[in-house]
UniProtKB/TrEMBL annotation:
Record domain APS kinase: where: 234-386
Encoding gene per record: cysC
The keyword ATP-binding appears for this protein: yes
Physiological role: Catalyzes the synthesis of activated sulfate.
Keyword annotations of the record: ATP-binding, Kinase, Nucleotide-binding, Phosphoprotein, Transferase
Organism: Kineosporia mesophila
Residues where ATP binds: 242-249
SUPFAM superfamilies: P-loop containing nucleoside triphosphate hydrolases
Protein name: Adenylyl-sulfate kinase
Entry-linked InterPro entries: APS (IPR002891), APS_kinase_dom (IPR059117), P-loop_NTPase (IPR027417), Sulf_AdTrans/APS_kinase (IPR050512)
Signal peptide boundaries: none
Pfam families: APS_kinase
Source taxon at top rank: Bacteria
Entry's family note: Belongs to the APS kinase family.
Length: 412
């Protein structure tokens, strides 16, 4: 057989694929789901029998991925299955400290004991918890509470909160119970896949609680109150977008100053020009680099928001798809408000203090937004402001009214 002299392949995949790999390698998932989305160029190499090294967020090689064999995960069929080989220990992912391998869980359960596994993906009422305990007692089953933990505040509870609630429920029952955290997968809502994971942890029976109305169990009520603070305590990103010269930076700076006088929370201003000189130094004004610049701003804003701060951003951000990516990332951590400074191009050119528009029209500045590169109008911003003929304070007042109406400025 001829030698394969092609270069080694490495890939930093989505966290969901790393989670699948970890579950397969620990034995919690008997076989990897057949649907593993990879970039087309890597997919062709995989289909040809090559191996790809999977790297975590720090670039550590944690496993290799190959595609061989046939068959599929529970209830499905596929002609090509992913196979994983371990390299380095997995260290990322939600509720990392609470994770255990199936072997560790089995060691905590008496040999031969029947195990009722309860995968928990959301909030549980006190009545549901009691029903589960009752069922386990009557059948003589050992309870295995599984916190199916995921990242982002779009879930009913964040990973750490869900784990704490499940752990406290297991500890407070007075019955034989073991809590364990597993990652939330792309196919988490697939009951067959959840059942397969539970059985990988030694379950003889699996019960997935259905959402119900009623009073939350105290452990879940406590974590829900912690995870969903009122608007005036939540982190927030105010994202201004508009043409050069529209007034977005001026309005953003004036708003940030007013916020500093009103709130005890941290207020961070991420102005487009200043970010360009520091965070994005070295980037060009090609479309790819402009998109990367906005994603960097979004990453920093999301971290500020995650810790309860107020991020005020003022880049041009001309492309709708990237603005929506930033919105999605920030909303995993807190709230997001998009303000379109919709000052017409003619007015922006009239105000141009730096002479950029004139240079762009002469062809001296390529890919200049509004002249030789498009500005895509926001589809659904929370607020549009045309600063033509109004004062800076008038514009700030409009933003302030929106923030007050939504409860962000109710209290310091």
């Amino acid at each position: 057989m001829p030698e394969d002299n092609s270069p080694a392949l490495s890939w930093h995949p989505p966290q969901s694929l790393l989670e699948i790999a970890e579950l397969v390698l620990t034995g919690a998932l008997p076989v990897a789901p057949g649907i593993v989305e990879v970039p087309s160029d890597l997919g062709e190499r995989l289909d040809a029998g090559a191996a790809v090294t999977l790297e975590d967020a720090e670039g550590t090689p944690v496993a290799t991925l190959t595609r061989r064999g046939s068959g599929g995960p529970v209830g499905t069929e596929t002609v090509s299955l992913p196979e994983f080989t371990p390299l380095k220990p997995f260290t990322h992912g939600p509720a990392r400290a609470a994770r255990q391998t199936p072997a560790q869980v089995r060691a905590a359960v008496p040999e031969g004991a029947a195990v009722l596994a309860v995968p928990v993906t959301g909030l549980l009422t006190a009545a549901v918890v009691e029903e589960v305990r009752d069922r386990a007692r009557k059948a003589g089953h050992h309870l295995l509470w599984i916190a199916v933990a995921g990242a982002g505040r779009k879930l009913p509870l964040p990973a750490d909160g869900l784990w704490r609630a499940v752990r406290d429920v297991a500890a407070g029952s007075g019955d034989p119970a073991v809590p364990v955290a597993v990652p939330r997968l792309t196919h988490t809502d697939d009951a067959a896949l959840l059942t397969a994971v539970a059985r990988g942890y030694g379950a003889t029976e699996v019960l997935t609680p259905e959402p119900q109305e009623g009073e939350l169990h105290p452990a879940f009520a406590r974590e829900y109150a912690r995870a969903v603070p009122p608007p005036h305590r939540r982190g927030l990103t105010l994202f201004f977008t508009g043409l050069s010269g529209s007034g977005k930076s001026t309005v953003a700076k004036a708003l940030a100053e007013r916020l500093l006088d009103h709130t005890t929370r941290t207020v961070s201003l991420l102005d487009g020009d200043e970010v360009r000189r520091m965070l994005s130094a070295g980037l060009t004004f090609s479309r790819a680099d402009r998109e990367l610049n906005i994603r960097r701003i979004g990453y920093v804003a999301a971290e500020i928001t995650r810790h309860g701060g107020l991020a005020v951003c003022a880049p041009i951000a001309p492309f709708e798809a990237v603005r929506e990516q930033v919105r999605a990332e920030v909303q995993q951590a807190g709230d997001f408000v998009l303000v379109h400074i919709a000052t017409p191009l003619e007015e922006c050119e009239r105000r141009d203090r730096k002479g950029l528009y004139a240079r762009a029209r002469r062809g001296e500045i390529p890919d200049f937004t509004g002249i030789s590169s498009p500005y895509e109008l926001p589809v659904d911003p929370e607020l549009r402001i045309d600063t033509t003929g109004i004062t800076v304070q008038d514009a700030v007042d409009q933003v302030w009214s929106l923030l007050t109406e939504r409860g962000y400025l109710t209290a310091p």
